[in-house]
Specification:
Strand order of the largest sheet: 2-8-7-6-5-3-4
CATH class of the largest domain: Alpha Beta
Strand content: 15-25%
Shape: globular
Number of strands: 13
CATH superfamily of the largest domain: Type I PLP-dependent aspartate aminotransferase-like (Major domain)
Radius of gyration: 20 Å
């Protein structure tokens, strides 16, 4: 079965499994797990930040970061297609008492800076204080687009002028750096907090990391504990994260290449509507030209032909990852062609 639902379906490598088995551990709530500490130090160095904190998921990483950067009754500006707003269960308003001021995402995942500026509330007793802008890189719903250093720098200039902080949901941060052929630190140096996932393209079984200043991470650790995220011998899965940061980043370009090849193949199939130029990283999005076709029937047809997908509304998302080989690319294209013919 070729599973293209997400890069979260990747299983740990044999090297990760051995590292997890052999991991030296301690009580991480007390800061005594040496493997967790090593992973956090690595993450801080890679992102150019002072400190880092291991959490169980990207959703927890975003929640803890935004709770740390805001106060109750304040407001966050973020995109209408972003994961924090659309796919994380309204955690920030529920747990933080923080409102979300939603701005339309551009096609490339950015926020129009003029719209951001116009969305910042004036000092007014009737309105929440705007305190943070949250962005996403790569942007999942916007075709996996990477957001470059220039945009982030310009956002930083605006936020400094308006005295706002910046958080980045960098779930696929390493995909962004790979696509832009730049160091991760160039995409994070203007941020107050950034989270990245170990459990997506990096193939770990669990885990995300928050990076920021020492003071921010100290407060983030308190919030992590408050929402039930304190972990004990977490070095067991932190060990896989160390392997990932050492060995799994350089191969991400292969996932991007496979995504582009699948996109090119889909473009040749009558009945598929796709913009291949929109594929920048490991995410492929397309739709069926005939809107009367039953998407569930298409999904089940692909399943019968050995391919799992993740449709949403009238579109389909495919995500390449370590377990998708060059040989799988041709199989996917043929399966889509056959499934279209059977509709």
């Amino acid at each position: 079965m070729i599973d293209l639902r997400s890069d979260t379906v990747t299983r740990p490598t044999e090297e990760m499994r051995r590292a997890m088995y052999d991991a030296e551990v301690g009580d991480d709530v007390h800061g005594e797990d040496p493997t967790v500490n090593e992973l956090q130090n690595m993450a801080a160095e890679i992102t150019g930040k002072e400190s880092a904190l291991l959490v169980s998921s990207g959703t927890m990483g975003n929640l803890v970061s935004l709770l740390t950067l805001t106060n109750r009754g304040e407001e966050i500006i973020l995109g209408d297609q972003c994961h924090v707003y659309a796919w994380e269960g309204a955690g920030v308003p529920i747990f933080g008492g923080v409102s979300l001021n939603v701005v339309k995402n551009e096609e490339n995942g950015t926020l129009n800076l003029d719209e951001v500026s116009n969305s910042i509330n004036p000092v007014d007793d009737h309105k929440p204080t705007t305190s943070v802008v949250s962005i996403e890189n790569t942007h999942n719903q916007c075709g996996g687009h990477p957001i470059d250093e220039e945009y982030i720098r310009n956002l930083k200039i605006l936020c400094d002028e308006k005295k706002l902080k910046i958080h980045m949901d960098g779930a696929r941060l390493f995909n962004a750096a790979t696509a832009l052929n730049t160091d991760v630190s160039n995409l994070t140096k203007y941020l107050d907090t950034v989270t990245f996932c170990l459990s997506k393209g990096l193939s770990c079984p669990v885990g995300s990391v928050i990076c920021g200043s020492k003071d921010i991470i100290l407060e983030a650790k308190r919030w992590r504990k408050a929402i039930g995220g304190g972990m004990r011998q977490a070095g067991v899965f932190a060990a896989a994260g160390i392997v990932a940061l050492n060995n799994m980043v350089d191969r991400l370009a292969e996932d991007h290449e496979n995504a582009k090849k699948i996109g090119n193949g889909l473009a040749d199939i009558d009945g598929i509507e796709i913009d291949v130029d929109y594929i920048k990283t490991n995410i492929i999005r397309f739709s069926l030209k005939d809107k009367s076709f039953d998407m569930n029937k298409f999904k089940n047809g692909l399943l019968d032909n050995g391919v799992m997908i993740s449709p949403s509304g009238g579109t389909v998302r495919m995500v390449t990852h370590r377990e998708i080989s060059h040989d799988d690319v041709g199989l996917v294209i043929r399966a889509v062609s056959k499934s279209i013919q059977e509709l």
